[in-house]
Amino acid sequence: MIILQSCLCLHKLNKSYIWDVTNTNTPLMELLPPSPLCCLRFNPKSSETLVGGCLNGVITYFDLRKPNANAGRCRSWESSIIEKSHHDPVTDVHWVSSKTGHQCVSISTDGKMMWWDTRKLGEPVDSLVLSLDGKGEMIYGGSSLEYSTEAGPTKYLIGSEQGVVISVNLRNRKMNNGITVYDSGPGKHHGAVYSIQRNPVHNKFFLTVGDWSARVWAEDLKTPIITTKYHESYLTSGCWSPSRPGVVFVTRADGVLDVWDFYHGQNDVAYSHRIGNSVLSSIGVQDNGKLVAVGDVQGSVHLLELCDSLAQSRPNEKSTINNIFERETKREKNLEIREKEMKRAKIIEDERVKPDASEKDIVQSEKLNAMLYKMEEDFKRLAGEQVNYEETLDDIIIH
After folding, report:
1. Which of 73, 175, 199, 330 sits at a 20 to 30 Å CA gap from 48?
2. Phi/psi at 327 (5° precision)
3. CA dihedral 213, 95, 63, 3 (to 10 degrees)
């Protein structure tokens, strides 16, 4: 089954569809949310339940087993209260690890991250402002979200409207609100981060897609380790291949799908395929890496079957890709150390050229001593002249 997640094409119809890849003519199920859906996720523990984020900021819950799911149509079973929901469209939602399997998390461009229990969606279980100080002085609007239990049940990765990547660790919530901001300078995207995803094999590395480039990051490094060259058109979404850890798919605004294969090279696109003239808005890959579903802003879903070279992993590909990522990480760390050394050397050089505080004190002391000496000599000279004048006056009186 494939879910089309496209905010742009769902606004017009207020409908979402679940498709069966064996029947591409008619959707398997039509979902009827209270407001147009911007994002939608299957529950990994129960494929009959789904959670979605709406255009009006509401979180809605679907259960395909309930009585309202019949005749190929399913209305939302429960939705959050709009007053206690997000104030902007929900840009992404994920199921999170829990004993009950009913916990989920959502983000929005309103700068809030909210946790929900689908059994009682009246209000969020918890919430977090995407700000370092927690006071809202600098709030990052969330545009994409990544959550993986393999990386840690309390860790989240967020792509922001400002192009900055944010890491949230709830275990460190007392320090900076649990938020770590990655490179906000040259390494950040020039626009919103539309997709963020951990590598399916090496989960300490993750992918971001935004502006005209895709970037690979290491979790323990603040700058990207790999940045693709700029594409000819704006990128709208992207993801890793689940079967090949070195393959990345990115969709473009000019209707082209690009495939990067880091196993064979990092400088050029391995394969480009024009799907149509409409703007591509979303992409999903089947677990075996063979089928790719791409959605566009016109509401069409395109299903592609990949060749074996793009779908089947090489015997040593996992270790090779890990070595490539580790090599680039080490290179980036060395550059970072070199930059710090150059800055430190420049500071030392500037301090060496400029007289320090002790030298300035010595110079000022010498000037003051010279001035006092001159004043003393002038005083002695005047005093001597006064003595001579008094002796001369005494002689005149005596005589």
Report:
1. 199
2. -65, -45
3. 20
Range 266-272, long-range pairs (CB < 8 A, 24+ positions): 266/226, 266/228, 266/324, 267/229, 268/229, 270/310, 271/310
The secondary structure of residue 141, as a DSSP letter, is P
pTM, two decimals, is 0.80
In sequence order, what are the residues at sequence separation of 6 or more whose Cβ sits closer than 8 angstroms to the Cβ of residue 343?
A: none
Contact yes or no for 252/234 (Cβ under 8 A): yes
Question: Hey, what are 141's tokens?
Answer: 């609007």
Taking domain 1-129, whether its CATH number is 3.40.50.720 is answered by: no
Can you give the C-alpha Rg of the chain in angstroms?
34
Pairing of strands 78-79, 90-95: unpaired
Distance of CA 378 to CAs 27, 182, 373, 384, Å? 108, 69, 9, 10
At 137-166, the pLDDT tens digits run 688 999 999 999 888 889 999 999 999 999
What is the pairing mode between strands 179-181 and 247-252? unpaired
| Residues 265-278 pLDDT 10s | 888 999 999 999 99
- Determine contact, residues 313/244, Cβ cutoff 8 Å: yes
The string of DSSP codes covering 223-242 is: S-SEEPPPPSS-EEEEEE-S
3-state secondary structure of 350: helix
Residue by residue, DSSP assigns 16-51 as EEEEBTTB-SS-SEEEE-SS-EEEEEEETTEEEEEE
- Min mean pLDDT across 160-164, 216-220, 353-357 is at 353-357
According to DSSP, the residues that pair with 303 across neighbouring strands are 293
Give the residue among 125, 130, 27, 141 at the shortest CA–CA distance from 91.
141
Ordered by start, the domain boundaries in the chain are 1-129, 355-399
